[in-house]
Amino acid sequence: MFAVTILGNNSAIPTPERHPTAQVLTYNDQLMLIDCGEGTQTQLAKYKVRRGKIRYIFISHLHGDHYFGLIGLINSMSLLGRIEPLTVFGPPGLWDILELQLRHAATTLRFELQFQPLTPESAGVLFQDKDMEVSCFPTRHRIPCYGFAFSVQRRKRRIIPEQTRAYEIPSAFFSHLADGEDYIRKDGTIVKNDWVTLPPNPARRYVYCADSIYDEELVPWLQDADLMYHETTYLDDLRQRAADRYHSTTVQAATLAGMAGARRLLIGHFSSKYTELQPFLDECIPVFPNTELALEGATYII
Ligand SMILES: [Zn+2]
Ligand SMILES: [Zn+2]
Hints:
The protein is an alpha/beta fold.
């Protein structure tokens, strides 16, 4: 499964109902945390996300609503006996902050905390493993801020059951077929792999656009998203306020999703001055019909 679960969908000020930004990306058994606003660790517990499984944390920028929960989470991981390394990606100042907090508490973590600084030169691929590629790109915000794109490659070919039956291929050989191997029958004749399989499913891509003013120059980074997250701090009547604070509105996020050819748009980072979220959806849908609200505790399949 490739999916994202929302832990926080609010902007700067937490409210009893809505937390600042944090999301968990799940791919098979791997978990990655995207931003870590205040209260993230209690949200992880509330929605039964296994924090021990988090291997990577991506912090978009150093506004507190995106990282004030990080030191608490790291501290708890150590108290709970974590020994696996944890890698945090974030702006360079984040390491100074974490190091200071740990030093003044005389805390020695039980696990290795690795830090990868993000700078404008980091734009592009951050790392790749067997199936996933993670990239970052700068957004336009009041302080340096980065969005992240997660692409999952599907490498396994898909078995065509009628064909494998017709050629009498034993199921024990199916994993080799999925890897692209031909099948050799007892009489020595060869069953070509593409007679009995289809190409792998296409790659899936999630793009997290972090905080940003409306900026069409982001479009190349946002392209081909199966699911694109974009902030909508304000409804569209507050365009000027959004621009002054380097944030975006509903119509702006929906417009960008259309320009980028996204298949679905997920909106969040709502200003705490709003108690109702339905108007956000109502403003986006006429511009980009496949829009969904980022709701806390909800999981969106990518
Ligand atoms: Zn923010
Ligand atoms: Zn911000």
